[in-house]
Design brief:
The complex is a heterodimer of chains A (114) and B (111). By secondary structure, chain A is an all-beta fold. Chain A contains no helices and eleven strands. The relative contact order of chain A is 0.32. Classes of the chains: A mainly beta (114), B mainly beta (111).
Chain lengths: 114, 111
């Protein structure tokens, strides 16, 4: 049973560019959350998707957007990249029906903005 | 405002020694609290969680944590540390669908 997978593993972009990160949830999971983890800090919640809708959003600008597909996989898009967007981006999935269910995290995508 | 604080950025312990990592939270309602571990190049792995009931929670890898409402704390403990426990540890608070994390504590283990 595959866990949460993310692609790509590493990515280098320049300021002003756009980037798309991808996440496939753990089998049987239908809820996907995205987190940004800057170097030396704890992860920060970006948003959560369920039933292809954004259900909750953290304190991130509109440059950060997402999408969830019918197979529950998800994309995170970041437009007009800034140097400060350099971070590890983590995807987490869980079964929606209970907050008590564990969130499983993927290994992350390391984004470097030059 | 809701927040999680991990006062210790780095901790070094000798292998076989006991460990306690501190976590303090600020939240007006009943907290749902978690401890995660992150090894280099890997995602976060759940060690244990507290929702209600017994204030002493057992987790994986021999870890336990004690919830103390009067102190707004949820400290992680292990009686005997192994070299493989060297990693970054995060305490987190669940608010709605969102996990709010502390800044993390990096654990180093001396042989």
């Amino acid at each position: 049973d595959a866990g949460v997978t993310q692609s790509p593993t590493h990515l280098i972009k320049t300021r002003g560019q756009q980037v798309t990160l991808r996440c496939s949830p753990k089998s049987g999971h239908d809820t996907v959350s995205w987190y940004q983890q800057a170097l030396g800090q704890g992860p920060q919640f970006i948003f959560q998707y369920y039933e292809e809708e954004e259900r909750q959003r953290g304190n991130f600008p509109d440059r950060f957007s997402g999408h969830q597909f019918p197979n529950y996989s998800s994309e995170l898009n970041v437009n007009a990249l800034l140097l400060g967007d350099s971070a590890l981006y983590l995807c987490a999935s869980r079964i929606r029906d209970s907050l008590y269910n564990e969130q499983f995290f993927g290994p992350g995508t390391r984004l470097t903005v030059l | 405002a809701q927040s999680v604080t991990q006062p210790d950025i780095h901790i070094t312990v000798s292998e076989g020694a006991s460990l306690e990592l501190r976590c303090n939270y600020s939240y007006g309602a009943t907290p749902y609290l978690f401890w995660y571990v992150q090894s280099p190049g890997q995602g976060l792995q759940l060690l244990l969680k507290y929702f209600s009931g017994d204030t002493l929670v057992q987790g994986i890898k021999g870890f336990e944590a004690e919830f103390k409402r009067s102190q707004s704390s949820f400290n992680l403990r292990k009686p005997s540390v192994h070299w493989s426990d060297a990693a970054e540890y995060f305490c987190a608070l669940l608010i709605g669908n969102m996990l709010t994390f502390g800044g993390g504590t990096r654990l180093m283990v001396k042989p």
